[in-house]
Amino acid sequence: MSADHKTTFKAAMIQMRTGIAPAANLDAATKLITQAKAAGADYVQTPEITNAFDTNRERLFSNLHDEERDPTLSAMRDLARRLNLHIHLGSLAIKVAPEKAANRAFVINPQGDIAARYDKIHMFDVELDDGHTYRESRNYRPGERAVLADLPWGRLGVTICYDLRFPSLYRALAEAGAIMLAIPSAFTKQTGEAHWHVLNRARAIENGAFVFAAAQGGKHENGRETFGHSLIVDPWGRVLAEGGIEPDVVMAEIDLSEVAAARKRIPSLQHGRRFEVAEPLPEPTYLHIVRSQ
User: Is 253 a catalytic residue?
Assistant: First the structure.
């Protein structure tokens, strides 16, 4: 971070309960972002899949657009200009082929320009104990590149939801200069209850970085249930702000000088070493020695 950077700003997580219709979701997001700006936010983040949360494949794709024509992205670029605000769209479903979308994040600066875009790398393809099956790769094409965004206060590592379970991604971002990590999500209620807090705090602690995690929460129009609990976590793993289940604005004052302090106390980023994984040793051979009588 250069000496002329400010080290403090207000971050706001926009917690949503995204439905099927993009227009209604845009309206809901706009109201919450405007509310956050009025409360003094400098940076706002929306959750994963801000524009359309739908399990009906045919209906989902009928509502999607490519990046150039996506109405949510266009409206949010205008809103960033109007509010003079950094708007981080946690992700939008963006059509990239007739039957494939990208789960794509956008960091928009106050001039309305796209400062960074990131396609979610890790696809959530699982079967849970409660009988629910998720096949994100059926609709979405995975990304292949980690992405950083330079904000006025420092460098942000951009990720999405299921990426949270792959710590090597966050270490690579931290090693590339990220002092803030973005993890906008739509965690399921079941997995969120078990792992949401501990994983977000772990990513903050092991990298000595702030974590910003806007979340979807509650029972959605499509019948799915998400965990909510948007989080802002400091580099020592302390939760500075947390949401509940309902749509809301979750805010905290960020002091980035805490990053250097945490990394000085636990300088693990300086101690990482490359290593090989050895194959198991062969089964030992036991020699039976028979003594002469």
Answer: no
